[in-house]
């Protein structure tokens, strides 16, 4: 018996990194997982390996969301669990960030989460409820230099999570945000040994599976939690060490 037997979960950005770890763990706990991504070959291979389905989905595209959710609804069933995980990063200082770059980051990281919530809300409500996990970042808890669009998008995800939890609570839909610190994925390639981890209470990079386990807990067990933040960052955001 798995914790998620009979449930249907859609994971955006599920072809790689944390999304792939989420997809594997949710499937191992019995969920039928739809891997949704732009990276078709990797996503299809992963879906095949976990007995799930792959669907091409650009999370910033309203039309694609409508088509994918309608298709999943008719071919598999209604989505019980949505993991809004897809995201991109752009290292640009605020003073020289092009509007096009800003809009691209906000479009995927923030508008993509909004479109995801909106696309599943009605069918979750009709089915009696559901759970939505929005993957933010420690960049949604504090600021970072050279990451203005990313930080703005991730704070936006944190705020949107609270507003959505308030709107959807009456429909038995929980909405929570997850805030990973540095995690070993293609997004952080080359940063595994970064000095920034040395000052953390847990002085190492995190693994995607460590975040997936938190997400499984939120989906399956955290039945009295909604609208709030769950941080998995090795303690990076707890404070500063004072050498006095
Ligand atoms: N890796 C970290 O240290 C870290 C830390 C905090 C938060 N995050 C967040 O975690 C999430 C997953 O990141 P990751 O590190 O696993 O990155 P990753 O680059 O390994 O995976 C991201 C996935 O999202 C997909 N994607 C990109 N744009 C998309 C779009 N428009 N539509 C659908 N899919 C798209 C990519 O193809 C890729 O498969 C992101 O939201 C990221 O911002 C990452």
CATH topology name, in short, is: Rossmann fold
Shape: globular
Strand content: 15-25%
What is the terminal separation in angstroms?
A: 53 Å
Name the CATH homologous superfamily.
NAD(P)-binding Rossmann-like Domain
Gyration radius, rounded: 17 Å
Structural category: alpha/beta
Q: Spell out the helices and strands N to C.
A: EHEHEHEHEHEHE
Helix content: 40-55%
For the record, the CATH class is: Alpha Beta
Low-confidence stretches: none
Major beta-sheet overview:
7 strands, parallel
Give the strand tally: 7
Q: Helical stretch count?
A: 6
Structure notes:
The structure is a single chain. α1 packs across α6, α3 (62-75) packs parallel to α4 and α4 (99-127) packs parallel to α5. The protein has helices at residues 17-28, 40-49, 62-75, 99-127, 148-168, 208-220; strands at 8-12, 32-37, 53-56, 81-84, 130-135, 173-180, 229-232. With 244 residues, the chain is an alpha/beta fold. α5 links the parallel β5 and β6 (173-180). The chain has one domain: NAD(P)-binding Rossmann-like Domain (Rossmann fold, 3-Layer(aba) Sandwich). Helix content is 41%, strand content 15%. A seven-stranded parallel β-sheet has the order 3-2-1-4-5-6-7, with helices on both faces. The mean pLDDT is 97. The termini are far apart. It binds nicotinamide-adenine-dinucleotide. Nicotinamide-adenine-dinucleotide binds at residues 12-13, 15-19, 37-39, 57-60, 85-88, 108, 135, 137, 180, 182-183, 185-188. GO terms for molecular function: oxidoreductase activity. Belongs to the short-chain dehydrogenases/reductases (SDR) family. Keywords: Oxidoreductase. It comes from Cryobacterium cryoconiti. InterPro entries: NAD(P)-bd_dom_sf, Sc_DH/Rdtase_CS, SDR_fam.
């Amino acid at each position: 018996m798995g914790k998620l037997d009979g449930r249907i979960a859609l994971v955006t950005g599920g072809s790689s990194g944390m999304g792939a770890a989420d997809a594997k763990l949710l499937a191992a706990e019995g969920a039928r997982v739809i891997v949704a991504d732009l990276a078709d070959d990797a996503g299809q291979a992963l879906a095949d390996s976990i007995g799930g389905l792959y669907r091409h989905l650009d999370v910033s595209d309203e039309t694609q969301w409508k088509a994918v959710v309608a298709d999943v609804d008719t071919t598999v069933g209604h989505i019980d669990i949505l993991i809004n995980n897809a995201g991109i990063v752009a290292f640009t200082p605020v003073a020289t960030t092009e509007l096009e770059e800003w809009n691209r980051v906000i479009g995927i990281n923030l508008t993509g989460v909004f479109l995801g919530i909106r696309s599943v809300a009605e069918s979750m409500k009709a089915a009696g409820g559901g759970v939505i996990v929005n993957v933010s970042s420690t960049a949604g808890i504090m600021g970072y230099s050279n990451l203005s669009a990313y930080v703005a998008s991730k704070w936006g995800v944190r705020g949107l999570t609270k507003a959505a939890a308030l709107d959807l609570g009456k429909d038995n839909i929980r909405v929570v945000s997850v805030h990973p610190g540095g995690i070993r994925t293609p997004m952080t390639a080359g940063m595994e040994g970064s000095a920034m981890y040395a000052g953390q209470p847990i002085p190492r990079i995190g693994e995607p599976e460590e975040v997936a386990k938190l997400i499984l807990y939120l989906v399956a067990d955290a039945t009295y939690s909604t609208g709030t933040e769950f941080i998995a960052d090795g303690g990076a955001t707890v404070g500063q060490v004072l050498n006095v």
